């Protein structure tokens, strides 16, 4: 059985989502990523995260396949791209927690909820909420 990635709320050195992105890369490389995640690898929030760090997603994928823990890979991103300070991490985390709530991603959230049979779940207001319900962490 194929797997879903870690929660978007998992932190790496204070930064949310990064661990999820790396987990998706690792699961995909091992052939264990749930199929519906494969088409969007490197785009969507993965692409936004890589861009925020100023690293190329393909380079990041190559680095992840070399091994290492998430913290080591985030430090690599800081060296290759840009280092985030406490304020940068705060901005990223606040942004990510609200993606899909009355913004340019709202239509995608509505579509995904419908595709997953979750359209009646009004408590799902953001993409992070959606991930947790769709992937079985919340019910």
Structure, described:
There is one protein chain. The protein has helices at residues 18-29, 35-38, 44-53, 57-65, 70-80, 86-98, 106-115, 127-134, and strands at 11-12, 15-16. It is mainly alpha-helical and 139 residues long. The chain has 2 domains: 1-86, no CATH class; 95-134, no CATH class. Strands 1-2 form a two-stranded antiparallel ribbon. Strand 1 (11-12) and strand 2 form a beta hairpin. It is globular, with a radius of gyration of 15 Å.
Domain module count = 2
As residue ranges, the low-confidence spans are: none
Order of helical and strand elements: EEHHHHHHHH
Morphology call:
globular
Structural class: mainly alpha
- Strand tally: 2
Largest sheet: 2 strands, antiparallel
Give the strand content.
under 5%
Q: Could you tell me the radius of gyration in angstroms?
A: 15 Å
Overall residue-averaged pLDDT value: 96
Helical stretch tally: 8
| Helical content (DSSP H or I, runs of 4+) | 55-70%
Strand order in the largest sheet: 1-2
